[in-house]
UniProtKB/TrEMBL annotation:
Entry-linked InterPro entries: AI-2E-like (IPR002549)
Region (Disordered): 352-377
Protein name from the UniProt record: PurR-regulated permease PerM
Similarity section: Belongs to the autoinducer-2 exporter (AI-2E) (TC 2.A.86) family.
Membrane topology: Multi-pass membrane protein
Domain of life: Bacteria
Pfam family, one: AI-2E_transport
GO biological process, one term: transmembrane transport
Organism annotation: Catenuloplanes atrovinosus
Length: 377
């Protein structure tokens, strides 16, 4: 009996050791994959941005192609229109702000003076000497950190330049996706061997449709934010309502930081032009809208459009933000959705060994009704 128990114990230990080794191998492969993604990030990031904006621009390009436009002309037209729209949004924000820049500067000075007068009264009772002392201390601290500030400024300039390069590269990639995207899936089917020629193109097509749902749902949520916050600003009487609403819509595509930045700008302008209590009301409006958007609207819309539960959406954004910051928050939901597509397809294949019909090699690449575009090699 003791010999039998000892044999069972050794067998259990061997199985546990085998599972442990397999787990370590999987973790090692995951680590290597993440390192490879890190090295290839300068290419992956603009490719991802291009895919996301292509999901917005593909419907008009598809419409033009179906009405007889050559693929190159349709892609070029949609790309130019996209650039004009983006430039119009920027102008719509900058021009009104520049037109009231003098009033804005005067309001900022008045706001600082009001804050100083408020601080000099009860309960703080901060006199001018204390303010001057704090100001001098701040100047000394600033002077002692000039080197760090210069380094941070240089790093910031480098980040801006990288952003410009990424944007230009993404626009070029978007043009080629719009022009040649429908040719990719038939080409991919011919390049892959055996069953992979069916599985990979099917997953790619479903993932493309899922990305489109994500971008459209994010645009819808941003529109809700812009409308509700814009109405609130108009009721309070804050100037620059239209630029602030446009800024809110654009910032909705950058999770967390975008909403914080747009809200900060709105509260600052309310404080400058309308006073302290107006700024408090605007802050309350923004907090209420952001809570509704983050906890109700966004999970509901994205869960329906992506086939993900609302709790999965919230957990994905939280995990992505903790792992990779802003970029992680931006990509967390589409990555989770693509993983969901892969898992759903895998379950279908396990339950239905026959699988889908192979893609036809005789598909006409120039047919606008052929599969929608995904990333080209």
């Amino acid at each position: 009996m003791k010999v039998l128990n000892a044999a069972k114990s050794r067998s259990a230990l061997r199985n546990a050791a085998l599972v442990s080794v397999q787990t370590l191998v999987v973790m090692l492969l995951g680590y290597v994959l993440l390192r490879l993604l890190g090295w290839a990030w300068p290419v992956i990031w603009p490719l991802t941005v291009a895919l996301l904006i292509t999901t917005l621009t593909w419907p008009p390009a598809r419409f033009l192609r179906r009405h007889g436009w050559p693929p190159a002309l349709a892609a070029a037209t949609v790309t130019v229109l996209f650039l004009l729209l983006a430039g119009g949004i920027i102008v719509g924000i900058v021009v009104p702000v520049a037109g009231q820049s003098g009033e804005l500067a005067d309001g900022v000075i008045d706001g600082i003076n009001q804050l100083r007068e408020w601080a000099s009264g009860p309960p703080l009772n901060i006199n001018d000497a204390q303010v001057d002392s704090a100001f001098n201390t701040g100047i000394e601290q600033l002077q002692s950190r000039v080197g760090s500030i210069v380094n941070a400024t240089v790093a910031g300039v480098g980040t801006v330049l990288n952003g410009v390069v990424t944007t230009v590269l993404a626009l070029f990639l978007m043009f080629f996706f719009l022009k040649d995207g429908p040719r990719f899936l038939p080409w991919l089917s011919r390049q892959l061997p055996g069953r992979l020629s069916v599985d990979i193109p099917t997953i790619a097509e479903r993932s493309w449709k899922t990305l489109g749902s994500f971008v459209l749902s994010q645009a819808f949520v941003g529109l809700l934010d812009a409308v509700f916050i814009g109405i609130g600003l108009w009721i309070v009487g804050v100037p620059l309502v239209l630029p602030l609403a446009v800024l809110t819509f654009v910032a909705a595509f950058v999770p967390i930081v975008g909403a914080l930045f747009a809200g900060f700008v709105a509260v600052l302008i309310a404080l400058v032009f309308e006073g302290f209590w107006a700024a408090v009301i605007v802050l309350i409006i923004i907090l209420v809208v952001q809570q509704l958007e983050g906890n109700i609207f966004q999970p509901m819309v994205q869960s329906r459009g992506l086939g993900l539960h609302a709790a999965v959406v919230l957990l994905a954004v939280t995990l992505g933000g903790s792992v990779a910051g802003i970029v992680g928050s931006l990509l967390a939901v589409p990555v989770a959705a693509v993983l969901g597509v892969f898992w759903t397809y895998l379950r279908e294949q396990l339950s239905d060994p026959a699988g889908p019909e192979p893609a036809s090699d005789d598909a006409d690449p120039s047919d606008p009704d052929s599969p929608e575009p995904v990333a080209t090699a």
